[in-house]
Each structure stands twice: as C-alpha cells, then as structure tokens.
Amino acid sequence: LPLDSLDGLSFRQRLPDGPAFYRGAFDLTETGFTFLDMRGWGKGYAWVNGHNLGRHWSVGPQRALFVPKSFLKLGRNEVVIFDLHSAADATTAGGKVQIWDLPGLVRG
After folding, report:
1. Higher pLDDT, 3 or 44
2. Cβ atoms of 21 and 7 closer than 8 Å
3. CATH number at residue 51
4. Would you say residue 72 has pLDDT above 60?
C-alpha cells in the first residue's frame, strides 16, 4: 500500500493495543539539525512535518532518528509515529517524544 499522505488518519486519546499511529506537536523559535528520541517505542516509522525519518526498533542499535534542519520550520511542527506493537511505555510512547540537538543525549 502506498502511503502518500497522512491526512486521512484518525487519532484517538486512548492508547490502542497493536499497530497504531500517534501524533504530537512541538514549537520552535529556531531550527537546526536535531534528533528524535525513540526510546520507549517498539518497531515502526516516524515522520516530522510529513517527511519520513525512517524506521525505529527498540532492539537498536540506534536510539534516535536524525531530523534534518530542512524538515523543521519555525513555529508549530508535527510528529507522527507508526508503531507496530502496543506502546511499551505509556509515558513515552503516545505521550511524550523528546527532541535533542545532540545524538549523545539519547544513550541508554
């Protein structure tokens, strides 16, 4: 199935069991190269402002996805995460996604 647009997705407040899309937003006063912390998520894909960042998987080896400066904009930015498994940690998955300016901040 082609996934050309995320516009038709339906988002809910409760955490579902199994595969699901999660959406969140963050505001920026300046842009730069950054990293999306994927600890606490299972296995799937992530997008920022409609740009595919790639795949994530809890077994690693990476714990973060690179977000190029050109994918970000001043003001409101949207993150969409597709996870194949139930949210491993409800505080992180489906609740909070951390954004870092250095990859070394997401060790562990």
Report:
1. 44
2. no
3. 2.60.120.260
4. yes
Domain membership of residue 38 (yes or no) is yes
For the question of whether the overall pTM of this predicted structure is more than 0.90, the answer is no
Neighbours of 74 (CB within 10 A): 10
Total count of domains within the chain: 1
Q: How far is CA 94 from the centre of its chain?
A: 9
- 61: domain range? 20-102
Give the C-alpha separation, 15 to 11, whole Å: 10
Interatomic CA distance for residues 38 and 53, integer angstroms: 11
Question: How far apart are alpha carbons 89 and 102 in whole angstroms?
Answer: 23
Task: Please give the backbone phi and psi of residue 21, each rounded to the nearest 5 degrees, phi first.
Answer: -100, 140
Q: Is 104:40 a contact under the CB 8 Å cutoff? A: no
Q: Is there a domain that residue 10 lies in? A: no
Tell me the C-alpha distance between 38 and 66, whole Å: 11
Distance CA(58)–CA(37), nearest Å, equals: 11
Closest Cα partner for 97 from 51, 61, 56? 56
